[in-house]
Known about the structure:
Strand order of the largest sheet: 3-5-4-6-7
Number of domains: 3
Largest sheet: 5 strands, mixed
CATH superfamily of the largest domain: Glutaredoxin
Oligomer: single chain
CATH architecture of the largest domain: 3-Layer(aba) Sandwich
Order of helices and strands: HEEHHHHEEHEHHHHHEEH
Low-confidence stretches: 1-21
CATH class of the largest domain: Alpha Beta
Mean pLDDT: 89
Distance between the termini: 34 Å
Radius of gyration: 26 Å
Shape: globular
Helix content: 55-70%
Strand content: 5-15%
Number of helices: 12
Amino acid sequence: MKMKILIxxxxxxxxxxxxxxxxxxLDLPPDTVVAIIDGVHVxxxxxxxxxxxLDAKRLFSLNQQLYSVRERALTTLIGERLLAHAAKDAGxxxxxxxxxxxxxxxxxRDVELMVxxxxxxxxxxxxxxxxxxxxxxxxxxxxxxxxxxxIEELKLEHKKAGRPIxxxxxxxxxxxxxxxxDPTKGNGPIEILEFSDFECPYCQKAxxxxxxMLAKYEGSVRxxxxxxxxxxxxxxxxxxxxxRCAQEQGKFWEYHDVLFAHQQALSSxxxxxxxxxxxxxxxxxxxxxSAGKHQDALAAVLDGTESHLIEATPTFLVNGRVxxxxxxLHELGAIIEQELGN
Length: 342
């Protein structure tokens, strides 16, 4: 704990020096002239716009990394300042104040699990020494958990006192339009675009989280389905086309659920059987599918704007903020809560 406080204090002391050294690189205004060619001024905004045409995905990734570094630093800085004020009010040093926070007791069963794992890797290690190290490590985790909880409590106290902590650091956002034909579910101020593939196992895994999210934030979120059939999936485009044929009969989401529930059954015969399962007019469905009505549009998805920014499935855009992978609800929920707060 002493080392953490020392590091935080040192960073705060060095901040003016570091910011002076870095500001010329990271905080230039968009209208900064970065080159003059034959008397024509080239602004930073011109360079950024051109870079988007060259490698939009990499530029966004770099902006996302920069935001993540700054967001972590800002969160840490706010926490340190809250603890410093609380310690001062209590007439204590920050170190003593943090050490006095109630922390959970280390469970000896967790100690033994760590010891057993270490002994599997190296049976020659002294068991008693391992227990001591395991208790110290787990105890440190418990104290850190107590510290984080207390910072959240201090934030809540500020909010109740009419002095909420305001974070205006804005994350990079991707602006991808929603088409009139994109299937949607729910309604609310938070728009979540889901780029997905019916043959993608991670997309299937994400479905339970999405159902929980829609239930928890009912009235707050609007989910928009975006087809993103990956080229390495044999049945991705046919399945997506079948779902669009089901959409024509007003049953996209019912068909969507059946496709994910039977992800290993996506052949043409399976797709027809699924149509019967959800109560579609199969003859109309067959004509739609055999005519290849949606095939070209789906095949062109990977050549569109989205392909320059979306790297994998599933990918979610929460009001334009990129979240990749089948993340747990608490991770996506944290961003939803931030957006609702804004």
